[in-house]
């Protein structure tokens, strides 16, 4: 699985969609080749759907996103729990691969491996558009940047685009967790499109 994200430059895109649609993503390499696709797995109930229609705190809701190869082979499951405290990543066999644990809401996250050992951190800038992934020694291993798509796109759709730059060499599982930072931060910080 680790060779899927071997490119040092990746893009994570969330296509434009209406408020009733599920979370979807595409992961591409620097040349635009689709490496993986992701989609939300669970059906939303009526109350949960209404919360995503109107400004509120829908980013507190749980989301489960399945990441597969373009051919449909399962890779990872990103399981954002209700609230803002924990997002787990599971491998294709359902085993825990790693987790993003909130240290400071919207500002700092701790990356942990399957055994709970600290892998590094994700530091978030004030506008929540730049995410610095660092190892346990404080060395920068990746930069994830949310691109500005314009006011109308930002307010009226859920379309978001992220650039991911990996500063090689980065070993597994930290490399995959760095790539998945774009999806995890989108689910935790941008999915609800709150105006705050």
Overall pLDDT metric: 83
Query: What is the C-alpha radius of gyration, as a whole number of Å?
Result: 15 Å
The CATH architecture designation is: Beta Barrel
Helix-strand category:
alpha+beta
Find the CATH superfamily.
Answer: LURP1-related
Total strands: 12
How many domains, as an integer? 1
Measured by DSSP, the beta-strand proportion falls in 35-45%
**Lateral arrangement of strands in the main beta sheet:** 1-2-3-4-5-6-7-8-9-10-11-12
Write the CATH fold name: Porin
Q: Which shape, going by the Cα principal axes?
A: globular
**Helical segment tally?**
3
Keywords:
3 helices, twelve-stranded antiparallel beta barrel, single chain, 196 residues
Q: Any overview of this molecule?
A:
The protein has 196 residues and is α+β, with helices and mostly antiparallel strands. The protein has a single domain, classed as Beta Barrel (Porin). Helices cover 16% and strands 41% of the residues. It has helices at residues 46-53, 151-156, 174-190; strands spanning 9-14, 24-29, 34-40, 63-68, 74-80, 86-91, 96-104, 108-113, 118-124, 130-135, 140-147, 160-166. A hairpin with a 3-residue loop joins strand 7 and strand 8 (108-113). The protein is globular, with a radius of gyration of 15 Å. The N and C termini lie far apart (38 Å).
SSE order and pairing:
Blueprint: E1 9-14, E2 24-29, E3 34-40, H1 46-53, E4 63-68, E5 74-80, E6 86-91, E7 96-104, E8 108-113, E9 118-124, E10 130-135, E11 140-147, H2 151-156, E12 160-166, H3 174-190
Antiparallel strand pairs: 1-2, 1-12, 2-3, 3-4, 4-5, 5-6, 6-7, 7-8, 8-9, 9-10, 10-11, 11-12
């Amino acid at each position: 699985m680790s060779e899927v994200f071997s490119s040092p430059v990746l893009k994570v895109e969330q296509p434009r969609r209406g408020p009733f649609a599920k979370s979807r993503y595409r992961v591409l390499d620097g040349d635009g080749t689709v490496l993986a696709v992701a989609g939300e797995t669970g059906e939303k109930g009526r109350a949960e759907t209404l919360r995503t229609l109107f400004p509120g705190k829908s980013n507190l809701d749980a989301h489960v996103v399945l990441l597969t190869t373009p051919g449909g082979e399962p890779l990872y499951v990103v399981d954002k729990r209700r609230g803002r405290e924990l997002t787990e990543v599971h491998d294709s066999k359902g085993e825990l691969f790693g987790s993003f644990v909130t240290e400071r809401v919207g500002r700092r996250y701790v990356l942990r491996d399957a055994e709970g050992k600290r892998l590094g951190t994700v530091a978030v800038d004030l506008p929540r558009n730049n995410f610095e992934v660092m190892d346990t020694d404080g060395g920068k291993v990746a930069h994830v940047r949310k691109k500005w798509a314009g006011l109308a796109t930002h307010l009226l759709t859920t379309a978001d685009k992220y650039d991911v730059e990996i500063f090689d060499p980065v070993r597994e599982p930290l490399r995959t967790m760095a790539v998945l930072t774009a999806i995890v931060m989108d689910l935790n910080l941008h999915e609800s499109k709150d105006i705050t």
